[in-house]
Protein backbone atom coordinates (compact mmCIF):
# COMPACT_ATOMS: atom_id res chain seq x y z
CA UNK A 1 0.00 0.00 0.00
CA UNK A 2 1.37 3.40 -0.97
CA UNK A 3 2.08 6.09 1.62
CA UNK A 4 -0.76 8.19 0.18
CA UNK A 5 -3.28 5.37 0.56
CA UNK A 6 -2.08 4.68 4.11
CA UNK A 7 -2.65 8.32 5.03
CA UNK A 8 -6.12 8.30 3.48
CA UNK A 9 -6.98 5.06 5.30
CA UNK A 10 -5.72 6.43 8.63
CA UNK A 11 -7.74 9.62 8.23
CA UNK A 12 -10.85 7.64 7.26
CA UNK A 13 -10.52 5.34 10.28
CA UNK A 14 -10.01 8.35 12.52
CA UNK A 15 -13.14 10.03 11.18
CA UNK A 16 -15.22 6.87 11.66
CA UNK A 17 -13.99 6.39 15.24
CA UNK A 18 -14.63 10.06 16.00
CA UNK A 19 -18.16 9.82 14.57
CA UNK A 20 -18.91 6.69 16.63
CA UNK A 21 -17.79 8.35 19.86
CA UNK A 22 -19.74 11.50 19.00
CA UNK A 23 -22.91 9.51 18.27
CA UNK A 24 -22.51 7.48 21.48
CA UNK A 25 -22.51 10.63 23.61
CA UNK A 26 -25.39 12.04 21.63
CA UNK A 27 -27.36 8.81 22.07
CA UNK A 28 -26.79 8.92 25.84
CA UNK A 29 -28.35 12.38 25.99
CA UNK A 30 -31.31 11.22 23.90
CA UNK A 31 -31.83 8.31 26.29
CA UNK A 32 -31.71 10.63 29.30
CA UNK A 33 -34.45 12.82 27.80
CA UNK A 34 -36.56 9.71 27.15
CA UNK A 35 -36.26 8.65 30.79
CA UNK A 36 -37.11 12.13 32.13
CA UNK A 37 -40.09 13.17 30.00
CA UNK A 38 -43.75 12.17 30.25
CA UNK A 39 -45.81 12.68 27.08
CA UNK A 40 -49.46 12.98 26.11
CA UNK A 41 -50.41 11.38 22.80
CA UNK A 42 -53.86 11.71 21.20
CA UNK A 43 -54.58 9.89 17.94
CA UNK A 44 -57.55 10.86 15.72
CA UNK A 45 -59.91 8.33 14.17
CA UNK A 46 -58.94 9.47 10.67
CA UNK A 47 -57.44 12.38 8.75
CA UNK A 48 -60.80 13.83 7.76
CA UNK A 49 -61.30 17.45 8.73
CA UNK A 50 -64.14 16.50 11.07
CA UNK A 51 -62.12 13.81 12.90
CA UNK A 52 -59.14 16.12 13.26
CA UNK A 53 -61.36 18.82 14.80
CA UNK A 54 -62.89 16.19 17.09
CA UNK A 55 -59.41 15.16 18.23
CA UNK A 56 -58.70 18.74 19.34
CA UNK A 57 -62.02 18.97 21.16
CA UNK A 58 -61.19 15.77 23.02
CA UNK A 59 -57.77 17.20 23.84
CA UNK A 60 -59.22 20.41 25.26
CA UNK A 61 -61.80 18.56 27.36
CA UNK A 62 -59.26 16.09 28.74
CA UNK A 63 -56.79 18.85 29.64
CA UNK A 64 -59.51 20.82 31.42
CA UNK A 65 -61.21 17.92 33.19
CA UNK A 66 -57.97 16.33 34.31
CA UNK A 67 -56.04 19.51 35.02
CA UNK A 68 -54.69 18.09 38.29
CA UNK A 69 -52.48 15.62 36.39
CA UNK A 70 -51.30 18.19 33.85
CA UNK A 71 -50.08 20.80 36.33
CA UNK A 72 -46.51 19.52 36.47
CA UNK A 73 -46.90 17.55 39.70
CA UNK A 74 -47.01 14.21 37.88
CA UNK A 75 -43.55 13.05 36.89
CA UNK A 76 -41.93 9.85 35.68
CA UNK A 77 -41.55 8.52 39.22
CA UNK A 78 -45.20 8.86 40.28
CA UNK A 79 -46.95 8.74 36.88
CA UNK A 80 -48.29 5.20 37.19
CA UNK A 81 -49.70 5.75 40.70
CA UNK A 82 -51.26 9.14 39.90
CA UNK A 83 -52.53 8.63 36.36
CA UNK A 84 -53.81 5.04 36.48
CA UNK A 85 -56.77 5.89 38.80
CA UNK A 86 -57.66 8.75 36.42
CA UNK A 87 -57.86 6.62 33.27
CA UNK A 88 -61.62 5.85 33.58
CA UNK A 89 -62.39 9.58 34.03
CA UNK A 90 -60.25 10.49 31.04
CA UNK A 91 -61.99 7.89 28.89
CA UNK A 92 -65.43 9.04 30.11
CA UNK A 93 -64.57 12.66 29.30
CA UNK A 94 -63.39 11.76 25.80
CA UNK A 95 -66.47 9.61 25.14
CA UNK A 96 -68.78 12.40 26.27
CA UNK A 97 -67.22 14.90 23.87
CA UNK A 98 -67.38 12.38 21.04
CA UNK A 99 -71.07 11.67 21.64
CA UNK A 100 -71.93 15.35 22.05
CA UNK A 101 -70.47 15.92 18.58
CA UNK A 102 -72.62 13.21 17.02
CA UNK A 103 -70.09 10.38 16.80
CA UNK A 104 -70.03 6.88 18.27
CA UNK A 105 -66.30 6.21 18.29
CA UNK A 106 -64.88 4.11 21.07
CA UNK A 107 -61.85 5.43 22.95
CA UNK A 108 -58.82 3.55 24.19
CA UNK A 109 -56.94 5.22 27.04
CA UNK A 110 -53.71 3.81 28.41
CA UNK A 111 -50.48 4.70 30.11
CA UNK A 112 -47.67 2.91 28.35
CA UNK A 113 -44.25 3.17 26.83
CA UNK A 114 -44.22 3.85 23.12
CA UNK A 115 -41.75 4.80 20.44
CA UNK A 116 -41.66 8.36 19.06
CA UNK A 117 -39.67 9.73 16.16
CA UNK A 118 -37.93 13.09 16.45
CA UNK A 119 -40.58 15.72 17.19
CA UNK A 120 -40.44 19.50 17.61
CA UNK A 121 -42.77 21.16 20.12
CA UNK A 122 -42.77 24.90 20.82
CA UNK A 123 -39.12 25.25 19.90
CA UNK A 124 -37.98 22.13 21.74
CA UNK A 125 -36.77 19.01 19.95
CA UNK A 126 -37.75 15.74 21.57
CA UNK A 127 -35.24 13.13 20.36
CA UNK A 128 -36.37 9.76 19.03
CA UNK A 129 -36.82 6.88 21.43
CA UNK A 130 -39.14 5.17 23.88
CA UNK A 131 -41.16 7.41 26.21
CA UNK A 132 -43.79 6.84 28.86
CA UNK A 133 -46.98 8.36 27.46
CA UNK A 134 -50.65 8.84 28.29
CA UNK A 135 -52.12 7.56 25.03
CA UNK A 136 -55.68 8.33 23.87
CA UNK A 137 -56.81 6.63 20.66
CA UNK A 138 -60.12 7.68 19.10
CA UNK A 139 -61.91 5.06 17.00
CA UNK A 140 -59.52 3.14 14.76
CA UNK A 141 -56.75 5.64 15.41
CA UNK A 142 -55.78 6.00 11.75
CA UNK A 143 -55.46 9.78 11.72
CA UNK A 144 -52.69 12.21 12.51
CA UNK A 145 -51.85 12.55 16.16
CA UNK A 146 -51.41 15.43 18.57
CA UNK A 147 -48.85 15.26 21.32
CA UNK A 148 -47.25 17.40 23.95
CA UNK A 149 -45.05 17.09 27.02
CA UNK A 150 -46.87 16.57 30.33
CA UNK A 151 -43.69 16.60 32.37
CA UNK A 152 -41.96 19.02 32.35
CA UNK A 153 -45.34 20.78 32.07
CA UNK A 154 -45.76 22.15 28.55
CA UNK A 155 -49.36 21.15 27.83
CA UNK A 156 -51.07 24.01 29.62
CA UNK A 157 -51.11 27.50 28.06
CA UNK A 158 -50.10 28.96 31.42
CA UNK A 159 -47.12 26.68 31.81
CA UNK A 160 -43.76 28.41 31.53
CA UNK A 161 -42.27 25.74 29.32
CA UNK A 162 -38.73 27.12 29.24
CA UNK A 163 -38.46 27.47 33.03
CA UNK A 164 -40.02 24.06 33.61
CA UNK A 165 -37.71 22.33 31.15
CA UNK A 166 -34.57 24.08 32.43
CA UNK A 167 -35.35 23.47 36.12
CA UNK A 168 -36.28 19.83 35.70
CA UNK A 169 -33.91 18.65 32.97
CA UNK A 170 -30.94 20.87 33.83
CA UNK A 171 -29.05 23.35 31.66
CA UNK A 172 -27.11 20.76 29.66
CA UNK A 173 -30.16 18.73 28.56
CA UNK A 174 -32.20 21.94 28.17
CA UNK A 175 -29.67 23.22 25.64
CA UNK A 176 -29.60 19.79 24.01
CA UNK A 177 -33.37 19.73 23.29
CA UNK A 178 -33.10 23.26 21.91
CA UNK A 179 -31.26 21.85 18.89
CA UNK A 180 -32.82 22.14 15.45
CA UNK A 181 -33.15 18.63 13.97
CA UNK A 182 -32.78 20.04 10.43
CA UNK A 183 -29.19 20.94 11.26
CA UNK A 184 -28.38 17.94 13.46
CA UNK A 185 -28.04 14.79 11.30
CA UNK A 186 -27.31 12.66 14.37
CA UNK A 187 -31.01 12.83 15.26
CA UNK A 188 -31.70 10.77 12.12
CA UNK A 189 -28.95 8.27 12.99
CA UNK A 190 -30.37 7.80 16.50
CA UNK A 191 -33.89 7.56 15.05
CA UNK A 192 -32.89 4.61 12.87
CA UNK A 193 -31.12 2.87 15.78
CA UNK A 194 -33.93 3.46 18.29
CA UNK A 195 -36.66 2.37 15.89
CA UNK A 196 -34.79 -0.85 15.18
CA UNK A 197 -34.29 -1.50 18.91
CA UNK A 198 -37.99 -0.88 19.58
CA UNK A 199 -39.10 -3.25 16.80
CA UNK A 200 -36.79 -6.01 18.03
CA UNK A 201 -37.86 -5.66 21.68
CA UNK A 202 -41.57 -5.74 20.76
CA UNK A 203 -41.56 -8.77 18.48
Can I get a quick summary?
The chain has 203 residues and is α+β, with helices and mostly antiparallel strands. The protein has helices at residues 3-36, 49-65, 79-83, 87-100, 161-177, 186-201, and strands at residues 38-43, 107-116, 119-121, 124-126, 129-138, 145-151.
Description:
The chain has one domain. Helix content is 51%, strand content 19%. The protein has 6 helices and 6 strands, in the order αβαααβββββαα. The strands form 2 sheets. A 4-stranded mixed sheet has the order 2-5-1-6. The chain has a two-stranded antiparallel ribbon with strand order 3-4. Strand 3 and strand 4 form a beta hairpin. Helix 1 packs antiparallel against helix 5. The radius of gyration is 20 Å and the shape is globular. The chain starts with a helix and ends with a helix.
N-C termini distance? 46 Å
Order of helices and strands: HEHHHEEEEEHH
> What structural class results from the helix and strand content?
alpha+beta
Percent range of helical residues: 40-55%
Q: Taking all residues together, what is the mean pLDDT? A: 79
Number of domains: 1
| Order of strands in the sheet with most strands | 2-5-1-6
**How many strands, which pairing sense, and closed or not: the largest β-sheet?**
4 strands, mixed
* Count of beta strands: 6
